[in-house]
Write a structure and sequence with these properties.
Length: 200
């Protein structure tokens, strides 16, 4: 995709801030910045090819160094975003990134995502939940779907390992598709949708 000048500037500013903070606290760990850029920037932008995203609400679980959520927010400014990060220093970075990049409609929660299940305002409120580097078990998916409105999707960033179709889905979650992201990384996006459940 062609980057607008505003998006290009925002992504460079994000990477510079990430590099600065990464010298103080371990936000990311890559053997080279080329691989880091593929994972942190290119993967989130490729997602926009597979999904028509121009607005909506998004909950990012285990936000860490801010990817994929910050590049997605920069690319789709009308997203309303919640970042969830349990480690205090990483959530401090996320708040600084939100401030420095001038991001609007963003909340940073220093918590485990399970703690947010008690927030009534987040119940079935999200169009998207993004996850990466998270151990995903059946109960994890059951918990995450509680944040999704019917028709909403979990965007699951995965590496080369694991099946194309997740085997641990239970209703109302259904597999929608698995899409390649960056060939060199053999990374994939698994899209899981929450079906509407008829009410009688």
């Amino acid at each position: 995709m062609a980057l607008s000048p505003e998006l290009a500037v925002g992504l460079v500013d994000y990477l510079e801030l990430l590099s600065l903070w990464n010298r103080k606290i371990n936000l990311i760990s890559f053997s080279s910045w080329d691989k880091a850029i593929d994972r942190l920037i290119v993967e989130p932008l490729v997602v926009l090819r597979h999904l028509t995203l121009d607005r909506g609400s998004l909950l990012d679980v285990g936000s860490g160094g801010g990817s994929p959520v910050i590049p997605l927010k920069l690319a789709v400014p009308r997203f309303r975003v919640w970042m969830v990060e349990s480690k205090t220093r990483k959530s401090a970075f996320l708040r600084e990134a939100v401030r420095r990049l001038g991001l609007k409609d963003v909340n940073v929660e220093t918590a485990r995502f399970e703690q947010l299940l008690s927030y009534p305002e987040l119940h079935e409120a999200m169009d998207f939940v993004t996850i990466r580097a998270l151990r995903v078990e059946r109960r994890t998916l059951i918990s995450l779907q509680a944040f999704l409105r019917p028709g909403g999707c979990i965007l699951w960033f995965r590496g080369a390992g694991g099946p194309v179709v997740p085997s641990n889905l239970t209703p109302p979650l259904v597999w929608q598709g698995t899409y390649p992201l960056v060939d060199e990384l053999q990374s994939r996006l698994v899209v899981v949708r929450k079906k509407s459940v008829p009410r009688y």
